[in-house]
Amino acid sequence: MAEIVLLLVIEKIGVALANGAAHQASAHFSRYAARLIELQGSMGRVVRELRIIHDVLCQMGIRNRHNQVYEGWLDEVRKVAHAMEDMVDEYMYQVGREHDTGCCFYLKKGLRKPRSLLSLNQISSKVKEIEKDLAHLSEMKNRWVPMINNADTSSLNYMIKKSQDLANTSRSLDNEDLVGVDENRGKLEQWLGSDDVECSLITLTGMAMDITSLQETLKRYLGEMKYLIILDDVWTPDAFEDLSRSLVCNGKGSRLIITTRQGDVAALASQGHVLTLEPLPEDKAWDLFCKKSFPKETSHHCPSELRLLSEEILSKCKGLPLAIVSIGSLLHVREKTVEEWKRINDQLSWEILNNSRLDHIRNVLHLSFIYLPTYLKSCFLYCSLFPEDYLFHRRKLVRLWMAEGFIVEKGASTLEEVAESYVKELRDGRRLVVHKLKKDIQQPFSIIHVLRTFITLEKSMSSFPLLPLLSEKSRYMTVLELSGLPIEKIPDAIGDLFNLRYLGLRYSKVKLLPKSIEKLSNLLTLDLCGSDIHELPPGIGKLNKLRHLFAEKNIISGRIQNIRYARGVCFPIGLGNLTNLQTVQALEVQEVDGSIRQLRELRQLRSLRIWVVKGTFCEHLCESLVLMQFLSNLNVSASDENEVLLLNALPPSLQKLSLGGRLPEGALLAESPLFQAMEQNLCSLRLSWSQLREDPLPSLSRLPNLMDLCLDKAYNGEKLEFLTGWFPKLKSLYLWDMPDLKMLEIHQGAVTALETLVLGNLESMVEVPPGLEFLMPLQLLSFREITRDFVTLLRQSPQLVGLQWQHTLRDNDQ
Q1: Is 225 exposed, middle or buried (0-12, 13-18, 19+ CB in 10 A)?
Q2: Helix and strand counts by DSSP (H, E) for the chain
Q3: Claim to verify: residue 146 and residue 7 sit in the same structural domain
Q4: Over 50: is that where the pLDDT of 297 sits?
Q5: Long-range contacts of 338-343 (CB under 8 A, 24+ apart)
Q6: The last residue of a domain, from among 226, 248, 276
Q7: Is it the case that residue 484 has pLDDT exceeding 50?
Q8: For residue 445, what pLDDT is reported?
């Protein structure tokens, strides 16, 4: 939507005109002060005009979306906004470049007219043109665009009308359409009819007057009555809080029901009184689809020739009853031929947007979008770049949003933390699921007008021409995601993409990065994971805005049998300059040449993987680690299986810890520095090649928040025993490659929350571990690399009755 584009541009201009940027610009363009003042004045006038346009568009919402004149005017607004965004990016680049190069650079170039003045002139001229274009757009709007007429178009009335449309939609469902709701209906009837005399609030979360006078009326009317109030389709907690001021808990057993799509509204319910409306299971969805699509005379039977097409159409509804009913009703009046149903299936996007029979679906989805906060709309629409049912990786999506400029810092929270909260907000509102119906609504609002983002999702290309992408038209590109493509070389021209904030080369065939990479001064994410790059260019230390560096690659496929199963990159020159780094995965220590000491400068790190560590490096490593007060994820791997990791100090902020290599005797005792660092916050622990002689479980059981535990070649003893009360929060347990382990015993009341148990290659174990029968919440029980004889024992074991389990055989037993 145009208002989202405008908001992003307004925020960028705000940054460009902020005190810090303005002072920096004044200092480095002091010789051209008059031109600079003129430019900043023009930018100020432009941003004021854009704010007014933004406010008008927010008021208008999507009411005029089918008004062609209005849409044409909006398109021109978008073009001007994008042009202004380009100029702001160019301006900020020039300010930053002047800051980086300094005046000495120009002295070396002689007395020629600096390129910066030429750029400043060009930017100033372009901004003046944009200012004129905005004035012309304002005149055009007044002449031709009937944005506000005499109809009832206020925002409040419009929202009320949309809510009424949704209510009418719900009432249009016949009783026979209500399939798959028996359990929730039973719970609701039970809560409503309970003997509890206190007034309670029940919320149903899913897809759906003047306040002062309303409060007074309710107080007078309700009095000492026992009442039931239903608030349908509530969007904000304020709506309930305003009403609750007029409600009196009179001990009559009154009830208040709220339906909502918002998680924060559902949280208002009395404890345990939330009904979450889940999508219909496949069988119930099929029954409802057939009821609405096929006539009663045929017992709602689906003809065999339409079965596959019907299933394909139904899959796009994702179990949503309203969608199934609406699309089924559309199909009911169409010819029951393969040709007709194939046409509808192929044109379903058009039907949803244009067919009046599907107004209900549009109203539901549009209302959800309208109520989204402006800061979430751009994030939501960005997801339409991806195919339907695309599996998002949460942290990658966060980094892409950051690169696009959708995220701004809030208080002490980092960009990543703010973006994570946006993901949670969209997920709690059940919007972060891109399926066919949502994508059809997203696409009209999310047309990309200029090439600022390039993401490839096709991994099977045999070749890919990169150079055409790096043309002058792509100068302002922010995201270049080429993961999985067979690219072997990155052209030097990539350095011209000064605005690039995300460069993804994951699993490509690139072996070297060009020297020009150092010119990408705005880069936030550099993803080289799985590529053939083993060394970073010296200029990498100039990328002082870099926040995420991924360079890990597996060199051994299959199950990990060697401590050197993966590689990273050598410590690059200038790593200590990258003080904004949040993630580094992974670095290899080569020599004690001071490189490891660079880590002490990276005090904002949240995640670090460092490999090929020798015992002699550990003292310097620990000195750096304790300075990282925000570090939550640490992976340290020794140079070989016999190298001892002498980690005598770690930051207490750690939540995930993976150690690969021998640990000294007593390393896990409660009084050891290593254990004390883990005790407070650790929730995930992996120990590999530790070669412990003492049983680690008595100490590890004292970690109060531990949820995931993996012991791989970690223990040389013969028995592990889980006692009653140990590991109350543990959800997953992996025990691998402990050749001396003969006995595993689980007492009743131990690991009571365990969901996953994997036992792999425990070759000395000859009996089924006693206590497995106590693991009733277990969702996955797996035995890996076992003998055929052990499979027989498992099948005959009474302990496994009622438990689902799986297994794989050892290579020599297959």
Answers
A1: exposed
A2: 25, 24
A3: yes
A4: yes
A5: 338/305, 338/306, 338/309, 341/306, 341/309, 341/310, 341/313, 342/309
A6: 276
A7: yes
A8: 41
Residues 132 and 218 in one domain: no
Which pLDDT value is given to residue 277? 77
Q: Kindly report, residue by residue over 378-421, the tens digit of the pLDDT.
A: 888 888 777 766 778 889 999 999 998 889 888 889 999 999 99
| DSSP-derived 3-state class of residue 609 | strand
CA dihedral 186, 188, 194, 198 (to 10 degrees): 170
Taking the alpha carbons of 512, 515, 521, 522 in that order, is the dihedral positive or negative?
negative
Question: What does the mean pLDDT of the chain come to?
Answer: 79
Question: Is the per-residue pLDDT at 692 higher than 50?
Answer: yes
Q: Is the pLDDT of residue 466 over 70?
A: no
Task: Specify the pLDDT at position 741.
Answer: 94
Decide: 241 and 140 in contact? Cβ < 8 Å: no
Closest alpha carbon to 43 in 134, 136, 138: 134
In angstroms, the CA 814 to CA 811 distance is: 6
Tell me: do 82 and 21 sit in the same domain: yes
Cα 374 to Cα 2, 5, 378, 404, 700, distances in angstroms: 11, 10, 7, 15, 46
Residue 654 CA to residue 606 CA, distance in Å, equals: 9
> Got the DSSP string for 106-161?
HHHT-SSPPHHHHHHHHHHHHHHHHHHHHHHHHHHHHHH---S-SSS--HHHHHHH
What would the 3-class secondary structure string for 714-747 be?
CECCCEEEECCCCCCCCCEEEEECCCCCCEEEEC
Asked if residue 109 belongs to a domain, the reply is: yes
Query: For the segment 205-221, what is each residue's pLDDT rounded down to a tens digit?
Result: 554 455 566 667 667 76
Say if residue 577's pLDDT is above 90: yes
Q: Within a domain: residue 55?
A: yes
SS3 label, residue 550: strand
Would you place residue 748 in the very low, low, confident or very high pLDDT band (cuts 50, 70, 90)?
very high
Number of folded domains that form the chain: 3
* pTM for this predicted structure: 0.76
189 occurs within a structural domain: yes
Instruction: Give the integer Cα–Cα distance in Å for 161 and 602.
Output: 54
pLDDT for the residue 108:
34
Asked if 266 and 274 touch (Cβ cutoff 8 Å), the reply is yes
> 298, 231 in Cβ contact below 8 A?
no
Q: Which residue has the tokens 């983002």?
A: 453
CB 499, CB 475: distance < 8 Å: yes
Give the pLDDT band of residue 461 (cuts 50, 70, 90): low
Give the contacts of 171 (CB within 8 A, at least 6 positions apart).
none
Last residue of a domain, one of 254, 276, 298: 276
Residue with tokens 């994410």: 525
522 and 535 Cβ atoms separated by less than 8 Å: no
Contact (CB, 8 A) for 262 and 231? no
The 3-state DSSP class for residue 201 equals strand
Quick count: other Cβ atoms within 10 Å of Cβ 653?
Answer: 17
Q: In this structure, are 132 and 208 located in the same domain?
A: no
> Which of 345-359, 472-486, 502-516, 546-560 shows the lowest mean pLDDT across its residues?
345-359
DSSP, collapsed to helix, strand or coil, labels residue 572 as coil
Distance CA 745, CA 727 (A): 14
CA–CA gap between residue 106 and residue 101 (Å, rounded):
9
Burial class (CB in 10 A: 0-12, 13-18, 19+), 585: buried
**Among 260, 168, 257, which residue's Cα sits nearest to residue 207?**
260
Q: Give the residue-averaged pLDDT of 780-785.
A: 93
Residue showing tokens 């005009």: 49
Nearest to 365, CA basis, from 421, 397, 317, 314: 317
Query: How many residues appear in the chain?
Result: 814
Please tell me the predicted confidence (pLDDT) of residue 583.
Answer: 97
Q: What's the domain range around 21?
A: 2-151
Both 24 and 138 in one domain: the answer is yes
User: Is 139 part of a structural domain of the chain?
Assistant: yes
